[in-house]
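Task: encode each sequence below as structure tokens.

Item 1
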Amino acid sequence: MNKPYEKQGEPSLAERSYIWKTAIGLQQVDGLTPSKYLVETANANIQGEISIHEAEQFIADYYENRQEKNLPEDRTEEADKVSVRIASVLCGQSFKLSPVELLSIHKRLFNGIYDFAGQIRNFNISKKEWVLNGESVYYGDFNDIQAALDYDFDKEKAFDYANLDARNAVKHMAKFIADVWQTHAFSEGNTRATAVFAIKYLRTFGYDVSNNTFEKHSFYFRNALVRANYNDHKKGIKATTLYLDCFFENLLFGYNHPLQNRGLHVDAKHSITEKLAMKKALSADRTRDDPTEKKNPRRTDERE
């Protein structure tokens, strides 16, 4: 006899703690800092005093009833609302590998904050990057965003992970996530939406993302995405997912790669030859006493 469906409950105290650390840490990618009230609300949820849905309502009510209005340059309200919404999304277990999922996450996080929440941008963009000495990644043309997303997701759905060990599977997933980010489907909020999407996707493989990697290194995550999508062959700069691989190996497998933003800068004191040597050395190190070598991630049927 089939058992009935069960209503999802809230994660454990430890899981809630890591979820909130991730949610708050991800605000760093846009230089935002949540308020003391948000932190107090997060702690109440972590301790089980209020549910995640109550926490979200508390933050909404706080800004609805707040007498003092934020100055245009004060984005604390955005930081608070997006933090609690990220926590709420990550407390859930639903997921579908589809561009619709990415758009839905963006709408969920930024509804009422950006007029274009969940909407594909209708103009081309660039952004000066510190890590690139003020240059910009070439983002996807707005006319082609839907087609680009459809292509990336269809290719990922068709990919067979069956014969890959866990580390190489994650390397492939990192490249997929970097490609989705490079499309930059939205006018703002791309990195935070992509990070939430990535976490939920990785969970469907059975990976545990309960640690402080996103909390402490979310700006590194963004810079690693930048370096995965930037080429300047005249200067010997080639797009590489090496930095992103290191981030995910720390996140998922307990590696302790140093995640230092200055090391991602295009002027860092490493030539291309040295970087290739570093990559080779990293690969050699990973094959010795690799904690993932016996793991083989499995897909859930939610992917279908």
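Item 2
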Amino acid sequence: MRTLYLDLGMGAAGDMLMAALLELVDDPQAFLDRMNGLGIPGVQVEAKQSVKCGITGTHVDVFVHGEEEQSQDVHDHEHPHDHEHEHHHDHEHGHAHVHRGLGEIREIVEDLELSPAVKDRVLEVYGLIAQAESKAHGRPVEEVHFHEVGSMDALADIVGVCLLMEQIAPEQVLASPVHVGSGQVRCAHGVLPVPAPATAHILQGVPMYGGAVRGELCTPTGAALLKTFVTSFGHMPPIAVEKTGYGMGKKDFEAANCVRAFLGDTPQEREQAVELRCNLDDMTPEELGFAMERLLELGALDVYLSPVGMKKSRPGVMLSCLCNPADEQKMVQAMFRHLSTLGIRRYLVDRYRLERSVEWRQGPLGQARVKHASGFGVQKSKLEYEDLASIAREQDLSLFQVRDSFENRT
């Protein structure tokens, strides 16, 4: 499986992610020419070689009417007002620039020469940022305004990453837990703790950590891009690396300030999952059924019950919930909410799975999905039960008759 793995040991910003992905494409200049020809208002994107701690990579600069968005961390020896320039996460700043709302951003995106899929991704990412700013500052999303430099800088980063993702076309995007830094960052509203409130809101459900590095390592734009594209956060899986990209940040730290991107193939047959279990002896079948439905709606891979003997000689059931590692905390919260248990056991498991695909098949009585699976030298196909059952109900037939109509067609 074609896999992109992001090493976020020094966090992530939009320009760093764009620079790392830029090193994975065959013709970086063609990409830059396309970016600068899109017509994002006032934007000019440039890439140059950068060296951090002896490592050579790429740094991307985004200029808006000749200006560049800056970030200012607060150091231990500084007074909060020692710096004249500020880091702006939302709409306020000290210069006379245009302020744009989310509706105006949508209009700009719709006018860009991008595929519908890329436009959808761009608006999805920008929507996450707007929602986070709305939450952080207590105002409706449509009333959140972004100053021109900050909004166009973020839009260029987001468009660039979405375009590169479309070009690289990984089948899955994995990443390490996110290093967010520590200390404080200066913004238009004053001095905020790291991670900034907007970043923290976007990263809910994503494994993150602080550390000895003082400064803001993950920005709201970087967080929103990660939340949109990364399917799972954890250790790097076995991967046959074809290309490695180094996206360099602006700041200098003791460690190399970069995002590393690894592109290559991972084994298709095995993946990691988390199994969550708890024993129950005081819930009704209706309550158990409702809890199972909710877990499956939230994205659980499987939920099932097993009979068990419990203390005080009581018969009970063990509920097992299998989920992706990225969904673990969401599942734990839902289990505590919908089940009577006071504790949950956790197991990290490897599972073998066949590669899957779905197609629609036309039969004499209607259409039904066919699920295909292959791997380990075997191939399997199965008609989707819900589609067969729907046809059977509508036409007052047995399930056997509907299934036979598909299997016997010439």
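Check on item 2: Residues 2-265 form one domain. The longest helix spans residues 116-137.
End of task.
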